[in-house]
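Researcher: Checking consistency across runs. Here is ElaC homolog 1 again:
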Amino acid sequence: ALVLRTDGDCWLFDCGEGTQTQLMKSQLRAGRITKVFISHLHGDHLFGLPGLLCTVSLNTNADPQQNPACVDIYGPVGLRKFLRVTLGLTGSQLLFPYAVHELEPTLDQSPEEGQLSMEMIADDGPLHPQEQPGRTICLDVSTDSYLLFENKKVVAKAFRLFHRIPSFGFCIQEHDRPGRLKTELLKELGLKPGPLYGRLKAGKSIILESGRLVHPSEVLEETIPGRKVCVFGDCSSVLGDGPLRLCSGADVLVHEATLGNEHREKAVDHGHSTPEMAAAVARACCARKLVLYHFSQRYKPSSSQKDGDDDNVLELKRQAEDVLQDSSVEVILAEDFMNLPILLRR
């Protein structure tokens, strides 16, 4: 699991069984989680979700005068029923509403044996007491992506991946920000700091007392590009042009590297990737940083290496760097509790 922190909220990507334990060891507060993104329905990415929601509930103010915000959960078809049945069978009541928004996969996202039957995913039963109706989101063929939501600050989309069962990646893209005001120029124009500064910053033209019309483009520096974070679920390949278009210029691209390059055939057979494959995606997307994660247990961190151990996780980093040696992409190995700031491009 990983968390994207933005403006005080925490957005969680995948939720394996150990997620609650790790959250308690971290500086993050479970009650801050407002959105959850599940890449696919394998247990190591999902089994911790019901318990996590219950933990979030324990950290929710029970004041009946307050209306807690709805936790929005995005993931493949079948996720809604999984939560409804799990919370229902365990008699779990939550102190906040939640909604599950399901992504409709295409048939080419997995082998036939990895596709769920209609009986397994049917959610025609009653809603959980705290469940709000969610959306079913279909592929937009014009963009080869799924629009999850958009607000004044960001747009969130999903894209298709190939795995043993349907898998998705997620792209969180900030909107561009207006540049700084050229305060010296504004002073020359006789404009003092105040509400009119705010109008210009918001992209609105103003009229000075002299009658002159001032457009924002005259007094604003260059636009500040929004930051972009892309998180890939388990996969052995991307599908269509959507992933590469969406993730083009990503500040951070998070991609699995389950096995080393020498085990490529085994990795692909199990629907996974190698460092070389992850690096190829990062290169095609012109990403600034490639974060490798989801390592097989055979790869030991340097701190846990013992005499005679051959499978060092640092070798996975070296394999990705070899592919990217003539590029500016920085390769990073994910570690528990690693904090990676994503700075604005100024």
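Researcher: Does this match what you'd expect to see?
Model: One thing to look at in this run: The chain has three domains: 1-60+68-174, 183-216, 249-346.
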